[in-house]
Design a protein that fits this description.
single chain; alpha/beta; 7-stranded mixed β-sheet
Length: 227
C-alpha cells in the first residue's frame, strides 16, 4: 500500500481518493498543483493513500456483508499503519485532518467520526454519507458502523461525543450543479447539529458540478482561510 507525501512542514492532511482510484489521483488531476503554494510555504504536508473500494463497497459481485468485512482491514490499515507513519513523519502525535472528494469524502468523514481520537477534522468535498446505494437494504454491524447516516442518529456515547464536540475543523463542502448530491451534505449537517457537533456546511452554487474543476476551487480557499 503506497503513500505519496508532498511537502516538508505544516499540518498533516490525509487524502482519500475518489471511487476506485489510487494514491496518485490528486496529483494526476492537478489538485496538488493548486495546493502547491501552501505546500511549498510549509502550511500543509499532504499524505495521499490508495483506496480499496473496488474490493469493498464498489464490488457488487460480492455480498454486502463480505464487502463490509473487507473494509475492516482497510480501517485497520489506516488507523494502525498510516496514522503512526504520519505521526512519525511529523515528529508528533495528533493534528491529522482528513480530506477527499466524492467517495473520498465519505471515507474522510467516516474515519473522523469513528476515530475522533486519531483525527482532528476533515475537509469533505461533494460526499455521500449513506451506504444504501452500494448495499441496498442489507444491514449488519459492520455496515451500520460505517454508514454515518445510520450510526450518527443513535450516537450517545460520551467518549465519542465529547471528542467530536471539541473539533473545530469539520468542513462539509458541496456544489449544487450536475451530478452533485447536496441533500447528502445537508442531512449530515442536520445529524451533526442534533448531536451538538460544531461544523461548517458550505453549499456552493448550481454551476459547481461534481467534478475536478469544483474541487480545485474549493481546496485552496480552505487552505488559505480555514487553517
Amino acid at each position: 500500500m503506497p503513500i505519496a507525501v508532498y511537502g516538508h512542514y505544516g499540518f498533516p492532511l490525509l487524502m482519500f481518493p475518489t471511487a476506485a482510484a489510487d494514491f496518485e489521483e490528486y496529483e494526476r488531476f492537478y489538485l496538488l498543483s493548486v495546493m502547491r503554494p501552501w505546500i511549498d510555504a510549509g502550511k500543509v504536508k499532504v499524505y495521499s493513500i490508495d483506496s480499496v473500494n473496488s474490493h469493498t463497497w464498489m464490488n457488487t459481485r460480492a455480498h454486502p456483508g463480505d464487502r463490509a468485512y473487507k473494509h475492516g482491514f482497510y480501517d485497520s490499515y489506516v488507523t494502525k499503519e498510516v496514522v503512526p507513519f504520519i505521526w512519525n513523519q511529523q515528529g508528533q502525535r495528533g493534528g491529522i485532518i482528513t480530506s477527499g472528494a466524492s467517495m473520498g469524502a465519505f471515507h474522510a468523514m467516516n474515519f473522523l467520526l469513528k476515530h475522533p481520537d486519531l483525527f482532528d477534522g476533515t475537509i469533505s468535498m461533494s460526499g455521500a454519507y449513506d451506504l444504501k446505494p452500494w448495499v441496498g437494504e442489507y444491514m449488519d454491524e459492520n455496515i451500520y458502523f460505517n454508514s454515518p447516516f445510520a450510526y450518527l442518529k443513535n450516537l450517545n456515547d460520551p467518549w465519542y461525543l465529547n471528542r467530536l464536540r471539541s473539533k473545530r475543523h469539520i468542513h462539509i463542502l458541496t456544489g449544487q450543479g450536475d451530478y452533485e448530491a447536496p441533500g447528502q451534505s445537508k442531512h449530515l449537517s442536520w445529524l451533526l447539529s442534533q448531536k451538538g457537533i460544531p461544523h461548517n456546511l458550505d453549499l456552493w452554487g448550481h454551476d459547481m458540478r461534481h467534478d475536478w474543476t469544483t474541487w480545485r476551487r474549493m481546496m485552496p480557499l480552505y487552505l488559505e482561510h480555514a487553517f
